[in-house]
Every structure is written in C-alpha cells, then in structure tokens.
Design goal:
Elements lengths: L6 H7 L7 H23 L9 H8 L6 H18 L10 H11 L2 H14 L4 E8 L11 E7 L46 E8 L2 H8 L4 H9 L4 H12 L3 H8 L20
Antiparallel strand pairs: 1-2, 1-3
Helix pairs in contact: 1-2, 2-4, 2-7, 3-4, 6-8
C-alpha cells in the first residue's frame, strides 16, 4: 500500500467535511488494499512484479488480453492521485496558481462550478481531472488547463489512449490530434492518434463506494463540495510546477511570433472519437 502524507490523520478523523473515518477506511484501506492485492497476484512471477502502477498502465494499454491487469493498475493509480491531493488543513490557493487557473477558467470559482457540475453529471463511476495541455491544437493553447472525464477504470495518461475506453459524450473533452499528422509533429510518439498530450494536476473519484456510505443516495454533490474544500492546493501547484518545467519547447513555440504561420491553409482536425 502506498503511504499518504495525511493517512494517519484521515484514518483517525476522516477527511474533514468530506469523509468519515469509516468512509475513508472503505475507500482507501479496504478498496485500495484490494486493488494492490489483485495486482500482486496478476503480476506474480512476471518481469512486472515490481513495476509501478503507471508503468503497468502504459505497458498493458495495447494488450486486450490483459484487461483485468490494466483495469486494476489504472484504478489504483487514479485512486492514489485522488487521495494524494487531500489535506485535513488545506492551504489557500496561491496567487500563482490562481493566475494560471484564471487564464483558462476566468476564475477559481468558475473552475469550482464547472468541476463540480461535470463530476455530478457523470452517469456512472469514474474520475474527473484537471489537466494541463502540453501542446497547442485547434481547441486549446499550450499550457492551457481543461477538465477531462474518464469512466470506470479509464486512464487519463496519454500513453494509455490506445486502449478503447468508456466515455459519455455529454462530458467528454475534445482532444484534437497529435503525432505525425499534428501541428507540431514529433518522432517516435507514444500518443495514440486523437490522444491529448497532457499532465495531470488534480482529480476526484466519483465511484459510489467512495461517497455513498457518508452521503447516501442523492448526496453526490455534497460530497463533491466537501472534496473541493479539502484540496491541498500546495500539492496541485507542485504538480503544475513539476510539469511546467518540462514544457520549455512548448513555451518557446508560444512566444515565437511565427508559430501561427503553420495554421495558414491547415485543415481543421477531426474531433477525437475516444479519450
């Protein structure tokens, strides 16, 4: 089991305003423990027995016969990301992060409203993510933030987009196209055609076992509002900083006055069929 920064506090007191200690125990210790046990059994005796969940996701994304292993690894990775951004005493959003969010959503309050509405509208279990786009396409600028939904154990990781995953067209994100036919083609791309090259900053788990014990039927929105108030914005900013530091090439293209020339005469890319 991975260790959470505030795991002991959550185990004793729960996540304030979001989960009771029993609710946390079910969603983290019991459920995540089940995922880890299953992964240990599925990888026992293989070269991947000591692999990280992220490595397992990327390794098995193109292997239909390994659906169980992919699903358990993807769910474990996503659940860990979700709980890693929670705090019993969440700090306020910094001016830097406020500025970055305002550039894409006009204000943090607008992001909150959109995030909660999107998660509450999901008809079925999954995750909702705040993501940073590394490259510009016909829909988004480099470094722009957007909301992405994944259903069931679907993964937001770019390298997993080869796998056909469940989606709801009412909440899915238009992704554009990348790879050899993109605006900024690269070599040896590991991103599926139609997949978005993104970094993950924040996510919320909407599976019923996470919130049903504490919030009952009809309490999903209240759970989401409690989640927003428990976000550790220092962790989110750290995720932003660690990913933005890798975006030098994209930043140079944005600042290049000739970067828009490539758009002249360029056909509009078809919206991706799957994310």
């Amino acid at each position: 089991m991975p260790q959470l920064t505030h795991g002991k506090t959550f185990q004793k007191d729960g996540v304030p305003g979001m989960l009771s200690s029993d609710g946390f125990n079910l969603a983290w210790h019991q459920y995540h423990g089940h995922l880890v046990d299953r992964l240990n059994k599925l990888t026992a005796g293989t070269p991947y027995s000591n692999s990280t969940t992220k490595d397992l996701i990327l390794t098995y994304a193109r292997q239909p016969h390994a659906a169980s292993l992919f699903n358990h690894a993807s769910m474990a990775w996503a659940n860990h990301q979700f709980f890693s951004t929670l705090s019993p005493d969440p700090p306020k959003m910094s001016s830097l992060l406020t500025s970055q969010i305002s550039d894409s959503f006009s204000s943090p309050e607008s992001l909150r409203t959109t995030f909660i509405a999107t998660a509450n509208a999901m008809f079925g279990p999954g995750f909702v993510w705040l993501v940073r786009h590394k490259n510009r396409n016909v829909h988004l600028m480099e470094n722009e933030l957007s909301i992405l939904t994944t259903y069931l154990a679907g993964s937001p990781l770019p390298g997993a987009h080869y796998r056909r995953q469940e989606q709801d067209h009412n909440t899915m994100m238009a992704a554009g196209s990348f790879g050899s036919t993109s605006l900024f083609p690269g070599t040896d791309s590991k991103i599926a055609y139609g997949g978005a090259d993104i970094d993950i900053l924040l996510g919320v788990n909407t599976w019923q076992h996470v919130w049903l014990m504490d919030w009952n039927i009809g309490g999903k929105k209240q759970f989401l509002e409690g989640w927003w108030n428990a976000i550790d914005w220092d962790v989110v900013e750290s995720n932003w900083q660690s990913t933005a530091s890798k975006g030098g090439a994209a930043d140079k293209r944005r600042n290049n006055p000739l970067s828009g020339v490539a758009n002249v005469g360029r056909r509009r890319q078809r919206v991706a069929e799957s994310v």
